[in-house]
Automatic annotation (TrEMBL):
The organism's taxonomic lineage, starting at the top: Bacteria, Bacillati, Actinomycetota, Actinomycetes, Kitasatosporales
Bias (Pro residues) ranges: 12-24
Keyword Acetylation annotated: no
Annotated TM spans: 71-89, 109-135, 223-243
InterPro entries in alphabetical order: P-loop_NTPase
Source organism superkingdom: Bacteria
Region entry Disordered, spans: 1-32
Alphabetized UniProt keyword annotations: Membrane, Transmembrane, Transmembrane helix
Name of the protein in question: ATP-binding protein
């Protein structure tokens, strides 16, 4: 069970080195291995948050789109009308159509070969004109666009097959029409020149006394050769080969042709770029491991990421080739040696770095381009930070936090991300073997402890970070609190070369005379006279009634009682600080489960403050750094809100989960919603929380229809009598309706709708990419 009270199903452990789940559409190449099919699956560009693996882009929304019945009825009517016009022409009722022939004098040629040829060609062109005119009247282009996916599916081709260019279609059609004209004139006996080679080669004795068997075989062979020669000539002239290669059925070896991006993906599946760069051996080795199943999707993504680095630095090509030939699919493995997670509870696409969290509901409240589409999260949107608000049991942990954490751990194994996931042991953020470092607060068996100063080397910075954690959620002046801490941290660091631990700092804030006397004496030995003056200032301030020392000591006591420093076990553990996020680390921090609620809040604030400071100071920002807080209660302070706005340019993001916005100070709620780019409101939120989301999502223009009913007083005696009889039997008076349509500006989602009309297991989600592309709020069914 998760912290939100949601019962989690036991995940199924996938077999090692298997390809990820294939998309909904038919595979591009049924005979190919699973990983090859997965790598070749189209991933067209889509809006923010749309799952791209196997995605089929929707046609542009047409407000005047015809219904199926109207479209098919219009097409049938146009077909019948065109057939009627041709029938009238064929039966000599439309003699005006032949006027151009009369003006050209073609009628005077009579039943000669030229006259019949011109007349037949003219009739075929007239049929083409009828097809064009009545095709446009019958909406033939729209009919084809609507049924094109069905036709492609019958041919076994992917729905995303790229259509042909207009010039290619016109050329191929013109060649087909010309072929029909030549074929009919040849085989109806109008043209006989093509039979001259047959008459010249076949002896007269074969046909003078009747067709012999030899003559029958000879002229049939001649017919076939002529038909093949005609098809070859017209095919070359009309470019039929292009059409065949694009729309060849799958059962004949065809696989369609996607967009240029899809063709590039197919080349990458065969490692063509690596082969063209001169490393043909490495390319063949990788392609072989893909076909044999020795490579997983994570191996593919990891090696491709390494190859992108080589393309930027060509001098490393030899090292890349040597590593691939030596280790194969295990090349460039993560420092932990792991090549995959033992458990995957969500669907991942490691090429687009997306994790699927649900499907957008197909209803009018959702934007057209999102209706019915699968919704996914990736670093492109998580880089603007995500705020998820919902009551316990709404699915925050199991359906959002856990999949996002799992995805970031996979990205870390490919060398593209670093993640720190924070929650209690009951949060089930992932199994132990999914992380490189696990910090268990209060557990003496833990191999690591948290650095309370976040790896800061500067005294003032360390004091500011610790002050933010201790009293950041109160009205205490943070600068004063940081100054108090710096008056003790600085001298301790000058005397002993390191910052004090939580027990030592607490004792000094409590004014422990023995410890302060020893520190003063050691400062004298070290010659740090300026730091002795800091101790003197601290001693004078400790005499004031409003001194912050005791309050800070009480907050440190909360951490000490929760086992933050592990007591004597701290000597056997290694400190972990968020300044190490320059490496692809997977870190999980287990907070104290029970009895230390205030200590959990202090640690959460500490981690959020340290994270925002550490990622902004990273010299190397190539890795995407993420902090996932399963419960961000009391973690939001003015400093952390400012820090969240600095994560986007630092290639970092935070995922914050709250039970309610009441856990955030009232003055910071609007600022928090403005600082994050992705907002998620789960079912069951209160109306007060919904009001903040409604204001954040703003308004949109919509059409409002007002229907007014008025009594019908029109007509003469008969109509009035009829209405009177109707009212006598039905009890309802006849009315007329008038409809007024106007454009009004309304909230995208009102507070009432968010609080009462979001079904269970659903959430309303809006996403913004790091490039600034903002998406509308979308109702999503999670899972």
């Amino acid at each position: 069970m998760t912290t939100d009270g949601e019962v989690r199903r036991t995940p199924v452990v996938p077999p090692q080195h298997t390809a990820p789940p294939l998309p909904r559409q038919e595979p591009a190449e049924p005979a190919a291995p699973p990983l090859v099919r997965w790598a070749r699956t189209p991933r067209p560009a889509a809006g923010a948050g749309i799952w791209r693996l196997g995605h089929v882009p929707k046609p542009p929304q047409d407000p005047h789109r015809l219904g199926d019945r109207e479209l098919h009825g219009t097409a049938l009517l146009a077909l019948l009308a065109g057939w009627l016009v041709w029938s009238l022409y064929d039966n000599r009722y439309l003699r005006a159509v032949d006027w151009p022939l009369d003006w050209a004098g073609a009628r005077s040629w009579g039943p000669t070969t030229a006259g019949i040829s011109v007349l037949h060609t003219y009739q075929v062109l007239f049929i083409c004109l009828l097809a064009y005119v009545f095709g446009r009247l019958g909406h033939a282009p729209e009919l084809w666009r609507r049924h094109r996916p069905t036709a492609l599916r019958l041919l076994g081709l992917p729905p995303g097959t790229e259509p042909l260019e207009r010039a290619v279609v016109l050329r191929a059609t013109a060649a087909a029409v010309a072929g029909y004209v030549v074929w009919t004139l040849s085989f109806r006996g109008v043209w006989t020149f093509w039979l001259e080679p047959l008459y010249a080669l076949v002896p007269d004795a074969w046909w003078e006394n009747g067709d012999t068997t030899a003559y029958t075989v000879a002229y049939n062979v001649h017919y076939v050769l002529y038909a093949l020669l005609l098809a070859l000539a017209l095919g070359l002239a009309g470019g039929w080969g292009t059409v065949w290669r694009r729309y060849r059925p799958a059962w004949l070896g065809g696989h369609g042709a996607g967009t240029p991006r899809d063709r590039e993906r197919e080349r990458q599946a065969e490692w063509s770029e690596l082969r063209e760069a001169g490393a043909a051996g490495a390319a063949d080795h990788l392609a072989g491991e893909m076909r044999t199943g020795a490579m997983s999707d994570l191996d593919y993504a990891r090696i491709e990421h390494a190859w992108r680095a080589v393309r930027a630095r060509p001098t490393a090509l030899e090292q890349f080739e040597a590593a691939v030939l030596g280790d194969g699919a295990g090349a460039f493995v993560h420092p932990s040696g792991r090549r995959d997670l033992t458990v995957r509870t969500a669907r991942h696409d490691l090429l687009t770095r997306q994790v699927c969290i649900g499907r957008a509901v197909d209803e009018e409240r959702n934007p057209y381009e999102h209706r019915g589409e699968e919704i996914a999260l990736d670093p492109a949107v998580l880089g603007t930070s995500l705020l998820a608000v919902g009551p316990p049991g709404s699915g925050k942990t199991g359906r959002v936090i856990r999949p996002v954490t799992e995805a970031l751990c996979l990205h870390a194994l490919t060398g593209q991300a670093a993640v720190v996931a924070v929650g209690t042991a009951r949060s089930a953020l992932g199994p132990d073997d999914a992380f490189d470092i696990i910090v268990r607060i209060g557990d003496e068996r833990s191999t690591h402890v948290l650095d309370p100063y976040g790896g800061a080397a500067d005294t003032d910075e360390a004091a500011a970070l610790l002050a933010e954690a201790l009293v950041g959620d109160t009205e205490t002046d943070l600068r004063t609190a940081a100054a108090v801490l710096a008056q003790l941290i600085g001298p301790f660091q000058a005397a002993y070369g390191h910052f004090p631990g939580i027990p030592e700092l607490r004792a000094m804030l409590d004014g422990a005379p023995a410890l302060l006397a020893t520190l003063r004496e050691d400062l004298g030995h070290a010659g740090a006279w300026s730091q002795q003056r800091e101790l003197d200032a601290r001693a004078r301030q400790a005499q004031r009634p409003d001194d912050l020392g005791p309050r800070l000591a009480d907050q440190l006591a909360l951490l000490d009682r929760a086992g933050f420093s592990h007591g004597e076990a701290a000597r056997r553990t290694r400190p972990f600080s968020l300044s190490s996020l320059e490496h692809p680390l997977r870190v999980r921090v287990d907070l104290p489960a029970t009895g230390h609620a205030e200590a959990r809040r202090v640690i959460t604030r500490m981690l959020l403050a340290q994270f925002t400071a550490a990622v902004a100071a990273r010299p190397d920002r190539t890795l995407f750094a993420a902090l996932v807080l399963d419960d961000a209660t009391s973690a939001i302070t003015p400093g952390t809100v400012r820090g969240l706005t600095q994560l986007r340019p630092a290639n970092a993001g935070a995922v914050l989960s709250l039970r309610t916005l009441d856990d955030v100070p009232a003055a910071l709620r609007s600022g928090l919603l403005g600082a994050v780019g992705c907002r998620m409101a789960f079912s069951g939120i209160t109306t007060w929380d919904a009001e903040h989301f409604a204001r954040a999502w703003g308004t949109a223009w919509t059409e409002d229809r007002d229907v007014t009913s008025t009594p019908d007083r029109s007509g003469g005696v008969v109509r009035r009598f009829t209405r009177g009889v109707r009212k006598l039997f039905t009890g309802r008076e006849a009315t007329t309706e008038s409809v007024t349509v106007r454009r009004v500006e309304r909230e995208r989602w009102s507070a009432s709708e968010l609080a009462h009309r979001v079904p269970p297991r659903h959430a309303v989600l809006s996403l913004t990419t790091v490039a600034g592309e903002a998406g509308p709020p979308v109702l999503v069914r999670l899972g």
